[in-house]
Design brief:
This protein is α+β, with helices and mostly antiparallel strands. About 20% of the residues lie in helices and about 40% in strands. About 20% of the residues are buried.
Length: about 250
């Protein structure tokens, strides 16, 4: 009986800290957008936000070992934005960033660490999507191809490639944006695919027939020419054999 009373006392609502009884501290989020790509650095916009907290809020952007990078005081519901230059360093651990916020209700955070070395220099391209759309313009039908990966460290180069390996077009759009290829369909029938490549890996989409359902004429023409050549050679050999038979006593 005494043991049961002790258990009830431990589990009583009044025994919990006030913050845990009413809910945990609001989470603070961190995200980023690449603005510019340089050989050894990246210009990055980092966003910090904690919702449902009384204003003003003082946001702090922290680097490795809790080093203060920048601070912003926000008096509106909008998040805090930090425009910084991230430089490649010898140790990946030196490129981890986090957000922290302070308001009248207390300290919030730090957020989950944003590992910028992995995001900006060591992330392979993944999940390449290629969308082929037939367009009817004033100068005739054309094909629009949109290529984009779900993730990958910048810079990412996209290529539109024929099945024989010939590179038709090449683009390097801003990070997070798709590549957009467009070409006229006249004399362009064939198999095409998208390729995406960064310094770590490369991906290719499945070959797509352009225009859909229409086989290219090139191989058929080559085959027809080959058959004509074979027929001509066979006819010549047959004529030579007949001439030899006539000359034979």
């Amino acid at each position: 009986m005494l043991l049961s009373l002790l258990c009830l006392a431990v589990l009583a609502p009044g025994s919990f800290p006030k913050e845990e009884a009413e809910g945990t501290t609001p989470d603070i989020s961190i995200s980023y957008e690449v603005l510019q790509v340089y050989p050894q650095s990246r210009r990055v916009l980092i966003t910090c936000h904690v919702p449902q907290v009384p204003r003003p809020i003082t946001y702090s952007l922290l680097a490795s070992r809790n080093t203060l990078v920048a601070r912003r005081v926000i008096n509106t519901p909008q998040p805090a934005y930090f425009n910084i230059n991230v430089t490649l360093k010898s140790s990946p651990d030196l490129l981890t960033y986090a957000c922290q916020a302070a308001s009248a209700s207390g300290i919030h955070g730090p957020s989950t660490g944003l590992q910028m070395y992995w995001e900006l220099w060591a992330k392979p391209v993944s999940q390449l999507q290629a969308n082929f759309s037939l367009r009817d313009g004033g100068s005739g039908p054309s094909m629009e191809v949109i290529c984009q990966v779900s993730s990958g460290s910048p810079p990412i180069t996209y290529r539109l490639v024929r099945k024989d390996g010939h590179v038709c077009m090449r683009q390097r759009p801003p990070h997070g944006q798709p590549a957009n290829f467009s070409f006229q369909l006249s004399r362009a029938a064939g198999w095409y695919q998208c390729q995406a490549e960064n310094r770590i890996s490369a991906l290719s989409s499945a070959p797509t027939l352009v225009p859909p359902g229409e086989l290219p004429l090139g191989p058929a023409c080559v085959l027809a020419g080959s058959l004509v050549s074979i027929a001509a050679i066979a006819s010549g050999m047959l004529g030579w054999t007949r001439a030899q038979r006539r000359l034979t006593p």
